Amino acid sequence: MRVAMIGTGYVGLVSGACFADFGHTVTCIDKDAAKIARLEQGEIPIFEPGLDELVARNAREGRLLFSTEAGKAVHEADAVFIAVGTPSRRGDGHADLSYVYAAAEEIAGLLDGFTVVVTKSTVPVGTGDEIEAILRRARPGGDFAVVSNPEFLREGAAINDFKRPDRVVVGTEDERAKAVMSELYRPLNLNETPILFTSRRTSELTKYAANAFLAMKITFINEMADLCETLDADVQQVARGIGLDKRIGSKFLHAGPGYGGSCFPKDTVALMRTAVDAGSPMRLVETTVAVNAARKRAMADKVVAALGGDVRGRRVGVLGLTFKPNTDDMRDAPSLEIVPALQALGAIVQAYDPEGHEARQLLRDVEFKAGPYEAAENADVLVILTEWDQFRALDLDRVKLLMRRALVVDLRNIYRPAEMKARGFEYKSVGRA
Fold first, then answer.
1. CA–CA dist 30, 32 (Å, integer)
2. Whole-prediction pTM value?
3. Are strands 195-198 and 168-171 parallel, antiparallel or unpaired?
4. Average pLDDT over the chain, rounded to an integer
């Protein structure tokens, strides 16, 4: 089948490359000429494991194309995906749908023959209705169906999530659209992937509901970690004890400095605003948002407490700045709250992240280092903020020799307290005695 993907951001590029790898012909379209030129030269604008090789292979074999012009690709497409950004709108937290609606306006005059217009962007309930209205105003007699098909991709594992998903959700009641979407995802039949067909509005809400629930799981275990510290219990054992219950599950029960990234922060706020506007407020989601914001500030306090309550003139080494490992995404990363909070109290921060290049523009007055050991050198405390694999097996004897004081604040619990004590470290973690 022929696919046009409007937007070459994280979702659009990963989805386009994976559809191409399924055997479809995909054209990824973006207004940013410089980005398209880079993609045509094989340069990937984001860090996602395996994406560079996937794009290169499918581009080489002629299934994956890039363009700044939508005309030909949309005209020939069986399905046109809208995969543009929906950032939080300043002032009220609602999703900014201007890019989505602009994409709909652009493709309206280009559709030819029956075409499925698919919303891949994360959008509030009712957005599909407005997209259909935009298309219908431009093409009163147009032969098309507007479908919701939310993405459930984890940064750092997106290719596997697309090719081996837990489920595919498709919001449409149009039988021809169902047939097109079934054919697009037909390669997943080998994995017996469930494809759930729902109404369009139900599909739109499902995406927000999924992210809000996972954000609540993270926030729950973070609050449980605080209680564990007070009661001298171990949050990791608590998480394992409840996670073995199949009704609960073990995923997203890892205590840490709070959630961040491109999805959870904006999607929980957008759902919260949508619910209030609908007259059906979601108190659990509201609390989740507030607790997560406070969580990041509390982690700075944890570092200050480990240093005896005063960080003025102290050198703080930080390992990890991105919101999670295996991504270069800095959006709403805990580091963006924790590092400035420590600096405001007089700390000198030196940091290293394997892919946190954007941090250089977002964090002021930080000494960026070339590796983890350089970040530990002469530090009064070493703070682990992101659990990159290369931080999991550091040469602890070397780290101890490099540091001014052998103090580690591990906000991801990647080391064992007994081991750190045996190596001569003062060690503080999350939710463990």
1. 5
2. 0.93
3. parallel
4. 96
